[in-house]
Amino acid sequence: MAQPTAYKDRQFLAVIGDEDSVTGLLLAGVGHVTSPPDAQKNFLVVDQKTETSAIEQAFDLYTSQRKDIAILLINQHIAERIRHRVDAYTQAFPSLLEIPSKDHPYDPEKDSVLKRVRRLAGE
Amino acid sequence: MTVKGYFSLAQANFTSTSRQRYGQDYYDERMQASRTVMIGQNDDEVGRFTMSRASAENGTKEGSDLPPDAKDEDERKEKIDPRPVDPISWFGILVPPALRSAQSRFVNAVEGSIPRVATLAKELRTIEIEIGRARKAIKKLDKG
């Protein structure tokens, strides 16, 4: 297994998003399924029926358990559902980015990165 | 953040013109990534993200100055087996132009904005830590 610090092994872009976001990113060729029997995907399609616990699980999988993820993209409206986890995230890798989705306009006020910038500049 | 523009544009385009739903029902269960991330390291310990591309859609377009049979070709074959296919083929042979334009927009985002923003976020993180340290140092001086 890879060391947590071995950033060179981090090569995949993972995504937690609605179907269109995931489809678009997979069209760009970032999708990856590891070889069986594990067959782990680097994406999770989330809809209204998806349990928040499943989102959290995927978040843990991509940020903590797997050591081969370099960037994790999450739709902002999904990040909202696990906001406490996203805001508390401080690891260097994977880099966590909130992205807009078709149905939910992007709100910079909610973005964890921009919130941190504000905190830095504000105080 | 240009990611926004790319994405909303791509997605609007994507859904408005296609009658059929191009979605998860068609995903290839054994897909292999043809675009992967490389994390570089520069002097200030800040990771720089770039995308690298395995010989995927157009086979020969990969790499700029490497001969096609260079040794990293072999490495790549080891890593990516079976050879990645263009994901657009999951959706059939004749796909609407909108789907192709969605693909190219997402490719732009994945190759351009996303690694750029990831790099910036990383730099921000580093600056954040530095500011935190500086503030602490100031507090100490104030007390003393």
UniProtKB/TrEMBL annotation, chain A:
One of its Pfam families is ATP-synt_F
Would you tell me the Gene Ontology cellular component terms?
fungal-type vacuole membrane; proton-transporting V-type ATPase, V1 domain
The record's subcellular location field reads: Vacuole membrane
Q: Which SUPFAM superfamilies does the entry link to?
A: AtpF-like
Q: Superkingdom of this entry's organism?
A: Eukaryota
Q: How does it sit in the membrane?
A: Peripheral membrane protein
Give the matching InterPro entries: ATPase_V1-cplx_f_g_su (IPR008218), ATPase_V1-cplx_fsu_euk (IPR005772), ATPase_V1_fsu_sf (IPR036906)
Q: Where do the TM regions start and end?
A: none
Q: Name one GO molecular function term.
A: proton-transporting ATPase activity, rotational mechanism
Which Gene3D superfamilies does the record cross-reference, listed alphabetically?
A: ATPase, V1 complex, subunit F
| Keywords on record | Hydrogen ion transport, Ion transport, Membrane, Transport, Vacuole
Q: Quaternary structure?
A: V-ATPase is a heteromultimeric enzyme composed of a peripheral catalytic V1 complex (components A to H) attached to an integral membrane V0 proton pore complex (components: a, c, c', c'', d, e, f and VOA1).
Q: Which family does it belong to?
A: Belongs to the V-ATPase F subunit family.
The role this protein plays is: Subunit of the V1 complex of vacuolar(H+)-ATPase (V-ATPase), a multisubunit enzyme composed of a peripheral complex (V1) that hydrolyzes ATP and a membrane integral complex (V0) that translocates protons. V-ATPase is responsible for acidifying and maintaining the pH of intracellular compartments.
In Swiss-Prot or TrEMBL terms, this protein is called V-type proton ATPase subunit F
Protein source organism = Tothia fuscella
Q: What is the lineage of its organism?
A: Eukaryota, Fungi, Dikarya, Ascomycota, Pezizomycotina
From TrEMBL, chain B:
**Pfam families per the record?**
Vma22_CCDC115
| Composition bias type Basic and acidic residues, residue spans | 59-83
List GO BP terms, alphabetically: vacuolar proton-transporting V-type ATPase complex assembly
Q: Which organism is it from?
A: Tothia fuscella
Q: Where, by residue number, does the polypeptide cross the bilayer?
A: none
Q: What cellular component GO annotations does this protein have?
A: Vma12-Vma22 assembly complex
Renumbered residue ranges of the record's region Disordered: 40-83
Task: Enumerate the PANTHER family for this protein.
Answer: COILED-COIL DOMAIN-CONTAINING PROTEIN 115
Query: What is the protein named?
Result: Vacuolar ATPase assembly protein VMA22
- Return one GO MF term: unfolded protein binding
Which InterPro entries does its entry note? Vma22/CCDC115 (IPR040357)
